Recover the amino acids of this structure.
C-alpha cells in the first residue's frame, strides 16, 4: 500500500509539473544580475557576496575565492577597433584576462581570437547568438552554449570552460544547465557604463570609478568597444597593483 501511495504522489507531481519531480525541480524564473552599490567592510558588493553563497552549488560566481586577486574580463559582442590596443597593453603588463565571445565575434574576427589564445588569455562562452537563456527552452539553451563551444573547438582547437550569461540574465535552471555541460558561470562584482560607443566616459572619471571599486576577489566586466578602456587600461592595472592586488 505504501508503494502505491508513493507512485501516486510521483504521478501527481509529473502531471502538474510537466514531468519534473516537485521536490527536485529548479526554477526558470528570470533574473537580471546586478551587484548593487552597497559594500561590506572589504569594499565587496554585498549582493555579489550573497550571489556567490546562493549559487556556488551550480559553479556560478560573481567573485573569485582569491582575496588578493582582481580578474579582468571583457565581453566581446562585436569589434570596434580597440581590441588590438587592449591586447598590446595586457601583454606589456603581463596580465591574463578572460574574453567572453559571441558566435558572430568568433566568425568575424578569427585573427583576434587566435591572438587571444596565443597570448595566453582565456576564451569564454557568451552564447552563440547572445540570446537571453531564461527566455529560451532548455534544449535551445544547450544549443546556444554547445554550438559556440563546438565552433571554437573545431576552428581553434580550444575547449572553453567558462560562461557568461548573455545580457546578465539567468535563471536557476540555466545555471544548472551550464553546469551539466561542464561550464563554470562567471558574472562580475564590478561593471560600469563603458559600452555606449558614442557616449564614452571621460577617462579620468572612468579611472577613478574603476580603481576606487577595487576589492579582493573582484571580477571586473569591461567592454573592448570602449575607447576609454583602451586609453586608461595600463594606468588602471598599475594602480590596482599599487593597491596590493594581483591583476
Amino acid at each position: 500500500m505504501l508503494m502505491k501511495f508513493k507512485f501516486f504522489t510521483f504521478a501527481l507531481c509529473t502531471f502538474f509539473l510537466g514531468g519534473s519531480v516537485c521536490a527536485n525541480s529548479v526554477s526558470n524564473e528570470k533574473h537580471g544580475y546586478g551587484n548593487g552599490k552597497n559594500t561590506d567592510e572589504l569594499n565587496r558588493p554585498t549582493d555579489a557576496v550573497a550571489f556567490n553563497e546562493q549559487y556556488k552549488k551550480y559553479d556560478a560566481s560573481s567573485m573569485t575565492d582569491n582575496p588578493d586577486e582582481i580578474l579582468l574580463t571583457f565581453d566581446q559582442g562585436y569589434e570596434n577597433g580597440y581590441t588590438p590596443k587592449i591586447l598590446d597593453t595586457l601583454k606589456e603588463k603581463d596580465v591574463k584576462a578572460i574574453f567572453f565571445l559571441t558566435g558572430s565575434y568568433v566568425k568575424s574576427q578569427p585573427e583576434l581570437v587566435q591572438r587571444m589564445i596565443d597570448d595566453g588569455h582565456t576564451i569564454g562562452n557568451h552564447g552563440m547568438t547572445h540570446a537571453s537563456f531564461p527566455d529560451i527552452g532548455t534544449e535551445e539553451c544547450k544549443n546556444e552554449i554547445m554550438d559556440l563551444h563546438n565552433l571554437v573547438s573545431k576552428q581553434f582547437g580550444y575547449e572553453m570552460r567558462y560562461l557568461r550569461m548573455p545580457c546578465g540574465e539567468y535563471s536557476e535552471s540555466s545555471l544548472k544547465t551550464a553546469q551539466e555541460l561542464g561550464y563554470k558561470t562567471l558574472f562580475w562584482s564590478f561593471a560600469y557604463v563603458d559600452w555606449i560607443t558614442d557616449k564614452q566616459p571621460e577617462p579620468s572619471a572612468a579611472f577613478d570609478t574603476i580603481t576606487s571599486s577595487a576589492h579582493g576577489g573582484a571580477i571586473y566586466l569591461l567592454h573592448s568597444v570602449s575607447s576609454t578602456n583602451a586609453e586608461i587600461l595600463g594606468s588602471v592595472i598599475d594602480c590596482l597593483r599599487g593597491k596590493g592586488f594581483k591583476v
Notes: The longest strand covers residues 70-76.
